[in-house]
Amino acid sequence: MIFHDVQQNTETWESLRIGKATGSNFGKFMANDGKAFGEPAKRYALQLALERITGKKAEFSFTNDDMERGHQQEPIARMLYEEECFVDVTNGGFFDCGEYGDSPDGLVGKDGIVEIKSVIAPTHYANLQRGTFDPSYRWQMVGHLDCSGRDWVDFVSYCSEFPESKRLLIYRLWRRECQMEIQRLRARRAEFLALVSSIQESIELLEAA
Questions:
Q1: On the CB side of 28, how many CA atoms lie within 13 Å of its CA?
Q2: Is residue 117 classed as helix, strand or coil in its secondary structure?
Q3: Which residues is 50 bridged to in the sheet?
Q4: Could you tell me which CATH number the domain at 2-208 has?
């Protein structure tokens, strides 16, 4: 594993991720774990195969109001997290693990990671009620721990519409709590990367024909 201390969403950061399965997408191939890959995983495998062949980003990106609001409010959530936990959050960069990698929102000291989600009111309310992270982000959280080798990751849910005392939810997931899930992720990811290689080979054969 190589850590690249680069700013996220820059050209350098984008180039490092080309053709690699990244943490925010691990949930696509972890769905139906133990069964055949679903359509989201197959589409993602095709995307990565094309990126490997062309050396260019093949992802169809899009933005919506919720995503834009999230980007705008993330610095506020980060500041509140730092104040609440008495820590400094440093650049998340990119953990390069060869055919895959991960870009957490920030690093905390030598042992921690933070993943910040600036969410709409219904989502934050659900997070507050369960007292933990949104299950849809489980494999991203496990991926943070696996790719970085760090001991814990804090999931931060933030919503400015709530009363001040309830705007922030922090839940810590420890590496020691999810050793079995890390093993499941590694096994399934190996199968997925084999699928990517298979698709890449088939495209290159068509190109050569």
A1: 17
A2: strand
A3: none
A4: 3.90.320.10
Please give the C-alpha separations between residue 171 and each of 33, 111, 116, in angstroms, as whole numbers.
25, 16, 11
Residues in a beta bridge with 158: 118, 168
Instruction: Give the alpha-carbon dihedral of 136, 37, 40, 159, to 10 degrees.
Output: 0
- Closest alpha carbon to 154 in 108, 118, 200: 108
Length of the chain: 209
Contact 96, 1 (CB under 8 A): yes
Full pLDDT tens readout for the chain, 209 residues:
899 999 988 999 999 999 999 999 999 999 988 888 999 999 999 999 999 999 888 765 555 555 566 567 788 999 999 999 999 999 999 999 999 999 999 999 999 999 999 999 999 999 999 998 888 899 999 999 999 999 999 999 999 999 988 999 999 999 999 999 999 999 999 999 999 999 999 998 887 76
3-class SS at 94?
Answer: strand
Query: Any idea where the domains of the chain sit in the sequence?
Result: 2-208
| H or E element, residue 197 | helix 179-208
* Nearest Cα residue to 158 out of 77, 83, 95, 85: 77
Residue 204 to residue 206: CA distance in whole angstroms:
5
